[in-house]
Amino acid sequence: MNILQNVPERNKLLFQKNTKRVGNVFFKLMRYFLLIGLSFLVLYPILYLLSVSFRTVEEFYDETVIWIPKTPTLIHYGSMIEQLEYLKVLGRTVFVILSCVILQLISCSITAYALARYKFKGVNVAFLLAIFTLIVLPQTAHISLFSTFRYFDFFGIGSVIGWFTGNDVTVNLINTHWPLFLSAAFGFGLRSGLYIYIFREFFKGMPSGLEEAANIDGCGTLSTYLRIIVPNAIPVFVMVALLTTVDYWNDSTVTGIYLNSEESFLLINNFEFYGYQQIANRVYGLTEVQNAAGAILTVLPLLLVYIICQKFFVECMDRSGIKG
Amino acid sequence: MRSKLRKRHGASLGERRERKGMLFLIPWVIGFIFFFLKPMAESMYYTFNTVSFGNEGLEYEAVGWENYASIFADKSFLQNLSEAWTSILYQVPLVVLFSLMVALLLNKQFPGRLLFRSVFFVPLIVMSSVVTGIMNDISGYATLGEAGNNLVNFDFGVDGFFTNILSALGIGSTILEEFSGLFNNLFSISWSSAVQIILYLTALQTIPESYYEVCSIEGATPWEAFWKITFPCLSPITLVCLIYTIVDTFTHAKLVDSITNMSDKFLHLSATMAWVYFIGVFVYIIVIYSIVSRWVKYMD
User: Using one digit for the tens of pLDDT, what is the confidence trace for B108-162?
Assistant: First the structure.
């Protein structure tokens, strides 16, 4: 039996409207509650690291200090900046990563364009192989990659010259940044398979009329690519550039294969080296606090850029429109 | 006469165009041969030999299938392997479900939405093995070994912030342990789902508003609208998320650490382990792909 049966029509409508309104408010509160809770969960380690990095050594073991240290200090940051040669390594890192990002953007987008828009034999197989490269563990390949770049023979040309002259032309590229540049330039940077996939999905979604119109207007293949496809795909380029930057900034396994000397360390390798060294020679209290400061320093540039550009970042993610 | 008219010199326009397209693929093919095929082939070769570091480099000694036999006899490897494979079974759906829920929460416009979105992307930016290692070290509670096959192991521990408050409220200690177990898992799931949330959010943007309008005109509740519209429209991206999560979990399992440690001394054993692990995950991916793609509806 409907509870509202005997109530006049106007009151019935009001009642329904008000319960609906209360229901709405409840849902909105629940949404905020969930989001705030989850956000705290997600940010907890970073906030904890931040809090630890500002403490003095005695305060690290102080039970009463939960988040905010009583005497915040910057000395650990200072000492880590000195120890890690922060500014120099940061400059080096920014340069290397910027070049790798540009190279990877070019090579991945070209490959994806070929895989998306052309129907020659083997195009699907090539795409599957590109995805397949994502799946393998770098550990299986690291000795082989190391030796490839230790005795780098320019993709076989050096060996061919060696057949003739008896002397292989090889170059030792370990401890330089060339392995990173070369692998990015040929479509095999970090997680390139993923970016090829992203680009391909986007290119597939572009109307083919664009290319036909360009063809009629006299563009060859390269002009079509540069003048028509690329300007229309700027959001995807930005998204892939951002993801690549984050990947390269944070990766220590693959870069660790090639960079073994302090002269060539990127920020993350540098910190890894010193951080674990400190842990090995642990001075209780000091090691933890200094490592916290070092960790914050390592992620700080990226985090700052992210905070400043977050609106732009999030919008670009939206507009790149991957359907899957 | 007809055959003479039909004869073309060289390739047709279409074929010429296709060839130019192939030119675009050349850099990747070069990279594939040298940076992928060659290492993979060598790694496969290692699994059938014993590799040792001789004077000039690597020395090989052919041993046939002995490497495979010896790793399967190793109990700790078998245990790690089965743990890794089963953790994929429960970790992956949890992560995908979680990111779907968060994406749905973050989809509508509400004040503070930008802020919350940025928060959920932070793990993407901060996560590196070094930083998480330092966090585990500093927190003092987690041991990378025990905490299992989660992506990030950060044990909140029974002395953590939450549990201080809860114990002040008088809640017993077994419940506290359950809670911290829950937080650990939730934490590791939310840290593993950054990219998936992005994927779902972009996919949610592409669902046309008109579908929902039609739905509300027809009188469907939001629950029904979700199952009839949102869920099917998201099915392609769900497949992508599933595969991505499987690959992500696969590369971060505990087994990978032991493979890396082995690779210094016993390269052949670590290569064998890596190949066995990899074939298992590859089978997973193929199975999941064929099952799920039957059900995916492509909206064209």
Answer: 877 878 788 888 888 888 887 777 777 777 765 433 333 343 444 455 443 455 5
Tell me the CA end-to-end span of chain B in Å, nearest whole number. Answer: 46
Q: What is the end-to-end Cα distance of chain A in Å, rounded?
A: 49
Check if B261 contacts A (Cβ < 8 Å). Answer: no
In which residue are the tokens 């996939």 written? A197
Tell me if B67 sits within 8 A of B269, measured CB to CB.
yes
Judge contact between B63 and B48, C-beta under 8 A.
yes
Q: How many CB atoms lie within 10 A of CB A83?
A: 15
Q: Hey, what are A300's tokens?
A: 């700080």
Q: Does B239 contact A114 at a Cβ distance shorter than 8 Å?
A: no
Residues 208-247 (B) with a CB less than 8 A from some CB of A: 236-237, 239-240, 244, 247
Question: Following CA atoms A284, A287, A292, A293 in sequence, which dihedral angle do they give, to the nearest 10 degrees?
Answer: 130
H/E stretch holding A319? helix A286-319
Q: Is the reported ipTM for this assembly greater than 0.85?
A: no
Q: Which of A115, A221, A268 sits opposite B130 (nearest CB)?
A: A268
pTM score of the predicted model: 0.80
> B132: Cβ–Cβ under 8 A, 6 or more apart, which residues?
A45, B152, B153, B154
Q: CA of A277 to nearest chain B CA: how many angstroms apart?
A: 12
Residues 41-80 of A with CB under 8 A from B: 41-46, 48-49, 52, 66
- The rounded Cα A149 to chain-centroid distance in angstroms is 24
- DSSP assignment, residue B139? H
Q: How confident is the model over A14-53, as pLDDT tens digits?
A: 777 777 777 778 888 888 888 888 888 888 888 888 888 8
Cα–Cα dist B232/B134, whole Å: 42
Residue closest to A271 by CA, chosen among A245, A251, A243, A286: A251
Query: A188-192, B150-154, B179-183, B287-291 — which is least confidently predicted?
Result: B150-154
Lowest-confidence pick of A1-15, A246-260, B158-172: B158-172
CB B161 within 8 A of CB B141: no
CA B227/CA A282 separation, integer angstroms: 55
In DSSP notation, A89-112 reads HHHHHHHHHHHHHHHHHHHHHHHH
Asked if pLDDT for residue A102 goes beyond 90, the answer is yes
Cα–Cα distance, A16 to A23 (Å, whole number): 10
Q: Give dist(CA A235, CA B206) in Å, integer.
A: 15
